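We emphasize that the prediction below concerns an isolated chain of 282 residues; any contacts that depend on oligomerization or on bound cofactors are therefore not represented. The input was used exactly as deposited, without trimming of termini.
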Amino acid sequence: MLKAVIKYEQGTAQYYIEDLGNGVELEMVLIPAGTFIMGAPENEEGSRNRERPQHQVTVPTFFMGRYQVTQAQWEIVANLPQVERELKAQPSKFKGDNLPVESVSWYDAVEFCTRLSNHTGRNYRLPSEAEWEYACRAGTTTPFNFGETITTDLANYRGTDNEEFNWSGSYSNGLKGTYREKTTPVGSFDATNAFGLSDMHGNVWEWCFDDYHKSYERVPTDGSAWVKSENKKDNNNRYRILRGGSCDFNPGNCRSAYRLYDNPDGAEYYSVGLRVVCSIAP
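Result of the prediction step, given as a token string:
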């Protein structure tokens, strides 16, 4: 029996729409400034030491994409003038204008943001890890922004067991579900959080700007990206942060606090995409 509660809340969101051309738009939602507790408590099922210590972070106001960047949006920007590196116009394994773009590296994602900034005159970039978690939680403290557990009716992840990696298809007291084995169109689920953001759990992993650090010791508390450390044991510049889970990972990896990391130049993995933020109001 499903014991944990999944909560639905309605709210209003302020946003603006960036016209990218050819009928393609980018919807940006206002994320209000605030203070939150980042990371997972020790008693959160599936949590790891790299999600601790929990700490208070104060995040300034910014805008964030309501959805993960789509393939239509990516193709428009990939055809804008190059800045540092070439971009494939259609890098994704699963094809569809309204599917999230995937199989993109961290360097590709940064190039996308730079081209978009040059085109619009606004400062588009990848979110900091703190911004991402703050936006995902939207005032919640539970493992997921809709409650203590998750179902495949609310997000796109692997809802079946994976014996090879000893992954369970359920989380906590939740139920197992389906394994779609592919991405789904952005906004396919009704589980929009209190800030008005969709698909913060599952579908594709989302790059953050931060370098990977093995814990939150000495982490910035102002919401900025953590891109260096004087202690080499705490920092590995070979890796960047990924958040949110994906269509082929188990539900525990979709938690608000979960941290994954990968090589910034790796682009072969089909479940890695991005969501952009903008630090300047239009």
